[in-house]
């Protein structure tokens, strides 16, 4: 049965095909956990969600830039102070570089405090000669091959880990951690020969920050960088349990995060995921790969943004280096001709995955940069704007993507490969990328 926005309910998706959902052995156990989740306090409040919506509307109108980033698959074990701090720090440092070079205010949106579910290409994989179910994110099963059975208790664990992560993030932001004047926050292991040009820019940024400090510092509301949370709305029973009716606005919000997005593998027009997300009052995102046609995009836009509201919908393109030219101009035209004021984001990670000689999944810094440059240029040529970027990154010194100033090659990937799913930029690669984005969008 077709539902309209008036008849939409958080559960209406249940009558539609839902891709990428785990199959649990014990339905009663799942239901008991969901009942508990429905009673637990929300992680965010509608006012914050609405505030983000307003900021995204400004970004869609060209007055701000959105930086979205964080782990591919957030791990329960990474719910630790130092790891959370490092993630926040790298995002804020990227933001300072983009603000300084790009001359634009930056919205910080973490893939954090709930990015626990992963869509996968296959259902099983071979490990040590044995066929096992794939890892689908800590909210569903464990990375260790012995823990691949979906376990409903993980839904509660996900809620609690997200709450602890968000609690720490809020304390860091409120406590002044986001104040980036401290020189130790900028320590990088780059040498002058490798990174002369970047280090000069960094000196300029430090000088500007010192100047602002001498003037008495930034006003409170600018000093503490606000951080919003986001994750893929993949596990629909969990997301439904986090959805609450807000009587003041008469709308439903998912209060498990400020922003939710639908992935490339679950964006079927008549599928459960679009049905679920279309009724939320949150600002939402949609991943758009090369298989999206202008015709399909028109239908998707009519479903997700019938009110044509700036800030409502962020389209996150992810084509792969060399592939945007064939797809993007038609999509830009489709959105424009239908009057949807979408915010265009570029995710240069998900179209650029490949397998290194040793078997590890990786992405090359050069491919990531190429896609960003191509997408920024195509937007400009079409009279549009790349107003956002979306990265898988971490503040840890991991070795998952090749390239960058430190010249990581495939042989070096083994050294500190920690991602449970896809490769992330490390801190040094993320900062280098931010320098380049600042130049690109100036
Ligand atoms: O992050 C995105 C997807 O979950 C990931 O690319 C899927 O990886 P797979 O193709 O190895 O399943
Ligand atoms: C799965 C993801 O991306 P995509 O849907 O674009 O493949 C992701 O961003 O985690």
From TrEMBL:
<comment type="pathway">
    <text>Metabolic intermediate biosynthesis; chorismate biosynthesis; chorismate from D-erythrose 4-phosphate and phosphoenolpyruvate: step 1/7.</text>
</comment>
<dbReference type="Pfam" id="PF01474">
    <property type="entry name" value="DAHP_synth_2"/>
</dbReference>
<keyword id="KW-0808">Transferase</keyword>
<protein>
    <recommendedName>
        <fullName>Phospho-2-dehydro-3-deoxyheptonate aldolase</fullName>
        <ecNumber>2.5.1.54</ecNumber>
    </recommendedName>
</protein>
<dbReference type="InterPro" id="IPR013785">
    <property type="entry name" value="Aldolase_TIM"/>
</dbReference>
<dbReference type="InterPro" id="IPR002480">
    <property type="entry name" value="DAHP_synth_2"/>
</dbReference>
<keyword id="KW-0028">Amino-acid biosynthesis</keyword>
<comment type="similarity">
    <text>Belongs to the class-II DAHP synthase family.</text>
</comment>
<keyword id="KW-0057">Aromatic amino acid biosynthesis</keyword>
């Amino acid at each position: 049965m077709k539902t309209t926005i008036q008849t939409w309910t958080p559960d209406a998706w249940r009558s539609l095909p839902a891709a990428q959902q785990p199959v649990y052995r014990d339905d009663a156990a799942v239901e008991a956990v969901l009942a508990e989740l429905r009673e637990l306090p929300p992680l965010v409040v509608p006012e914050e969600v609405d505030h983000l919506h307003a900021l995204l509307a400004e970004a869609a109108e060209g007055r701000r830039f959105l930086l979205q980033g964080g782990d591919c698959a957030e791990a329960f074990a990474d719910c630790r102070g130092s790891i959370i701090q490092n993630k926040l720090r790298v995002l804020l440092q990227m933001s300072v570089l983009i603000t300084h070079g790009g001359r634009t205010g930056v919205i910080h949106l973490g893939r954090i405090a709930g990015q626990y579910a992963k869509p996968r290409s296959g259902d099983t994989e071979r490990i040590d000669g044995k066929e096992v179910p794939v890892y689908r994110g800590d909210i569903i099963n464990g990375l260790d091959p012995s823990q691949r059975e979906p376990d409903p208790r993980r839904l509660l664990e996900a809620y609690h880990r997200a709450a602890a992560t968000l609690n720490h993030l809020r304390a860091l932001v409120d406590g002044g951690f986001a104040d980036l004047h401290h020189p130790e926050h900028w320590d990088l292991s780059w040498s002058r020969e490798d990174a002369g040009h970047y280090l000069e820019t960094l000196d300029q940024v430090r000088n500007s920050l010192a100047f602002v400090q001498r003037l008495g510092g930034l006003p409170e509301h600018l000093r503490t960088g606000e951080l919003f949370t986001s994750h893929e709305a993949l596990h629909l029973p969990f997301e439904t349990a986090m959805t609450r009716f807000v009587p003041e606005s008469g709308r439903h919000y998912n209060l498990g995060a400020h922003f939710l997005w639908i992935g490339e593998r679950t964006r079927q027009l008549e599928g459960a995921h679009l049905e679920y997300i279309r009724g939320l009052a949150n600002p939402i995102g949609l991943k758009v790969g090369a298989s999206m046609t202008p015709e399909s995009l028109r239908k998707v836009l009519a479903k997700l943004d019938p009110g044509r509201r700036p800030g409502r919908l962020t389209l996150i393109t992810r084509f792969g280096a060399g592939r945007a030219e064939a797809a993007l101009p038609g999509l830009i035209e489709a959105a424009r001709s239908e009057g949807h004021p979408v915010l265009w984001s570029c995710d240069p990670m998900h179209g650029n995955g490949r397998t290194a000689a040793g078997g590890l999944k990786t992405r090359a810094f050069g491919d990531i940069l190429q896609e960003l440059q191509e997408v920024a240029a195509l937007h400009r040529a079409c009279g549009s704007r790349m107003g956002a970027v979306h990265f898988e990154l971490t503040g840890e010194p991991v070795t998952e993507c090749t390239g960058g100033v430190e010249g990581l090659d495939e042989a070096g990937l083994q050294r500190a490969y920690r991602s449970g799913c896809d490769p992330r930029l490390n801190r040094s690669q993320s900062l280098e990328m931010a320098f380049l984005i600042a130049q690109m969008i100036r």
